[in-house]
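F.,

This is the one I mentioned.
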């Protein structure tokens, strides 16, 4: 079933959702495999959760047998989460609606208090001086190239310095490999202004984000300390804000946002910050933003759409919507194109194909370049592409891995007639394959040609919800006349 939303502020927009069918309930069978030893893991606690709007609901919990197998006699409708707990660390596997409930594999690892192969690969500090406050965001990227989870509950897996002016108020989110951000609590240590975080650093990439604020008057001083050994620390300031200090050196500006980037020379820094600005674009920003941008620009979905987002993100609910299997089922086109300007078209798609674990990245990338009409510029740098060519590449990126859920914000933007026809063909193929599509677009004729159900928001109120009618297909203006008036 296709659903749509139209919101008329200055014009009307559509959000289209195709719902998946729900299979008959069955037991869940699978195996817990220890990736450290390469053998089945006995004694892991395996729990099945039903994922819903109220959060995870526990259904049944069992222990894995000597051969690593487990059998859960109950099941639930909709998306489910299978969680294996082993050596005080949990590992998740999300089962989207319609996915097989047998031969489910959950991977776990041995844990150790020693850091081992886990290291901080990069540390970035973002400064945003606004309205008498210096908003500070810090991001730590951990890389664990080993096969053991680093988990030091007592000593913490990361220690960080918090300026005294923050008064101990800090928000922390941690994202495990293929996971989603989860709020964490930082604890004080015996060292003044030093806090610790005990979050397991699993094999793969873990991201930890801090945010806090301190009073600020321009020009203002800021001091930081680096308490880890590893990758570089970079300071980032928005356009219009300058940072000066003997402990840093300029690396230049990010091309699109014009944000200034600085490298920290040692294990501490003292800087003077002048000016005001933000790294977050306003709602009316029209600047393109690709995957290489510093900021993350959300799609232009409306605040009133929470009910429809529940449907769209049904398979993502719970604590790990970025599980490998789940991410492989999602394709996304947002306000930005999420491709890398300094890479060629073929390099971009080859990279994403590898990230999605496709068996033949070169072949997949080439096929989608040809399908979207970009084969002739396969080796051209994306920064030299027109907006329409970038949008074609974004379409290729989103459909590359055959996702079962597609989230598309204004996918027809900047496309010529030929490219629109290509996208419509791709969308029809996706629908014919039983995939879910969420689309927000101003292209009413193209949207109505694909939709089966439509919902209309007029000035923030639900004006219509139901099946797409022939009138809508024949004359999209009929929708405006019927439901779009004030």
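My design for it:
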């Amino acid at each position: 079933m296709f659903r749509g939303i139209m919101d008329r502020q200055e014009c009307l927009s559509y959000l289209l959702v195709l719902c998946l069918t729900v299979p008959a309930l069955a037991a869940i069978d699978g195996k817990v495999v220890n990736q450290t030893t390469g053998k089945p893991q006995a004694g892991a606690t395996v729990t099945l959760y039903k994922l819903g709007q109220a959060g995870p609901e526990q259904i049944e919990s069992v222990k894995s047998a000597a051969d690593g197998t487990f059998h859960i006699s109950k099941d639930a409708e909709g998306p489910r989460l299978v969680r294996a707990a082993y050596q005080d660390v949990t590992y998740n596997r999300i089962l989207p609606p319609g996915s097989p409930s047998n031969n489910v594999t959950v991977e776990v690892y041995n844990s150790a208090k020693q850091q081992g192969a886990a290291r901080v690969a990069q540390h970035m500090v973002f400064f945003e001086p606004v309205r008498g406050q210096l908003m500070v965001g810090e991001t730590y990227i951990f890389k664990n190239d080993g096969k053991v989870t680093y988990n030091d509950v007592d000593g913490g897996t990361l220690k960080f310095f918090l300026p005294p002016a923050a008064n101990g108020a800090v928000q922390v989110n941690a994202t495990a490999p293929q996971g989603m951000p989860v709020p964490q609590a930082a604890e004080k240590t015996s060292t003044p202004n030093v806090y610790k975080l005990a979050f397991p650093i699993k094999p793969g990439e873990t991201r930890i984000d801090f945010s806090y604020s301190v009073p600020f008057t321009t020009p203002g001083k800021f001091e930081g300390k680096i308490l880890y050994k590893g990758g570089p620390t970079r300071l980032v300031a928005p356009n219009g804000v300058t940072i000066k200090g003997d402990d840093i050196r300029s690396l230049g500006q990010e091309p699109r946002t014009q944000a200034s980037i600085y490298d920290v020379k040692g294990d501490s820094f003292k800087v003077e910050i002048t000016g005001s600005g933000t790294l977050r674009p306003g709602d009316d920003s029209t600047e393109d933003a690709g995957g290489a941008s510093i900021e993350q620009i959300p799609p232009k979905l409306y605040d009133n759409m929470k009910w429809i987002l529940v449907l769209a993100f049904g398979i993502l609910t719970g604590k790990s919507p970025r599980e490998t299997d789940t991410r492989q089922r999602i394709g996304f086109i947002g306000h930005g194109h999420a491709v890398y300007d300094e890479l060629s078209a073929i390099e971009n798609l080859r990279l994403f194909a590898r990230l999605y674990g496709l068996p033949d990245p070169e072949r997949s990338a080439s096929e989608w370049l040809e399908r979207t009409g970009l084969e002739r510029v396969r080796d051209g740098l994306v920064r030299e592409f027109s907006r329409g060519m970038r949008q074609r590449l974004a379409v290729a990126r989103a459909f590359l891995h055959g996702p079962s859920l597609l989230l598309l914000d204004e996918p027809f933007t900047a496309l010529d007639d030929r490219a629109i026809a290509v996208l419509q063909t791709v969308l029809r193929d996706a629908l014919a394959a039983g995939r879910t599509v969420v689309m927000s677009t101003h292209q009413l004729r193209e949207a109505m040609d694909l939709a089966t159900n439509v919902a209309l928001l007029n000035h923030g109120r639900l004006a219509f919800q139901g099946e797409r009618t022939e009138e809508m297909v024949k004359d999209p203006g009929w929708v405006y006349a019927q439901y779009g008036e004030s």
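The mean pLDDT is 79.

Talk soon.
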